[in-house]
Write a structure and sequence with these properties.
The protein has a domain of 123 residues: Four Helix Bundle (Hemerythrin (Met), subunit A) (Up-down Bundle). The chain has five helices and five strands. It has a three-stranded antiparallel β-sheet with strand order 4-3-5, covered by helices on one side. Strands 1-2 form a two-stranded antiparallel ribbon. Helix 2 packs antiparallel against helix 3, helix 2 packs antiparallel against helix 5 and helix 4 packs antiparallel against helix 5. The longest helix is centred in the middle third of the chain and has 22 residues. The protein is globular and about 45 Å long.
């Protein structure tokens, strides 16, 4: 159904996921093959910025399930190779995030998840709108960590409310 809404109850909390057709602003960021992956990733990132482990877990479940929905038959060779190379990391880290309500553990897996999603988006080179690759130098025990954002304003998923605006945009993947 094109205008469907899915309501999920998790531990007494309700999450509303609009159909991808209704969420056009977010899905416009990447090609159709990755729209579910991208929207789920962004929702997961936004849950982490709000320190909401339950929402992060729920969106990680959407992300985990969306990996299987990527249709590879219409991808270019470069896109296909980027997807195949990174899909296991996306799936593995989403699986770990969905399986826990420990936000620090979720954030540890979000580091590698972000790297894999970034690699795919960068190789697809068909995002119609800008996508921002952002960095927090304090994350990951001072090693620093990246994430992808739909917004140029830094909103840090690794520290949430503690240091919401810590970080900077390191790269803008320009829309085509």
């Amino acid at each position: 159904m094109k205008n469907s809404i899915l309501i999920i109850a998790v531990s007494g909390l309700f999450f509303v996921q609009c159909s991808l057709a209704q969420n056009k602003a977010q899905t416009a960021k990447v090609p159709d093959a990755l729209s579910e992956v991208y929207v789920s990733y962004i929702n997961l990132k936004n849950a982490l910025t709000k320190d909401n482990a339950d929402s992060a877990s729920a969106y990680a479940k959407f992300l985990f399930n969306s990996v299987d929905n990527v249709k590879t038959d219409k991808l270019s060779t470069v896109q296909y190779e980027a997807w195949i190379k990174n899909m296991k990391d996306i799936s593995y880290n989403a699986e770990h995030i969905k399986a826990t309500d420990d936000i620090e553990h979720q954030r540890e897996h979000f580091i590698k998840l972000s790297s894999a999603v970034y690699n795919v988006i960068k190789e697809f080179k068909s995002n119609p709108d800008n996508v921002y690759y952002q960095f927090c130098p304090m994350a990951d025990n001072g090693k620093g960590a990246y994430w992808i954002s739909e917004n140029p304003k830094v909103v840090n998923p690794y520290y949430g409310k503690k240091m919401l605006n810590c970080g900077s945009t390191k790269e803008t993947l320009k829309g085509n």
